[in-house]
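User: Can you help me understand a structure? I only have the sequence.
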Amino acid sequence: LYVVAGLLCVGLAYLGAILPGLPTTPWVLLASYCFSKSSPRLERWLKRSPIFGKLLRDWEEHRGIRRPVKIFAVCLIVIVVGSSIAFGGLPDWVKCVIGVLATIGVFTIVFIVPTIPRQPPT
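Assistant: Let's start by predicting it. Here is the structure, written out as tokens:
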């Protein structure tokens, strides 16, 4: 069950990497947890992934996300949500819901998820 759950989470993480409304990081972390409980081989594969490997290493080592990743995520949310609200032709109540959810997401990224401090050059 852990392997199946981990694979499902990896699939959702890949979708989250291309769909702005779906988060990526929680799915990657959950997949890593599932693989750690079930398959060391799949856990190694995920940690070596060119897309998710650095994110996992940052979380495991520092329990946070790097500033450029946060900036990219916030910019992507603002652009996509702003475009959806401006050009989507959606009912006003849907625009409000989307705006509130986007605001919660940006708030979470900026103020709740820890930022990895910059390391001085050695």
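Now, to help you interpret it: The helical segments are 2-18, 25-38, 40-47, 53-62, 67-87, 92-112. The chain has a mean pLDDT of 88. Let me know which part you'd like to focus on.
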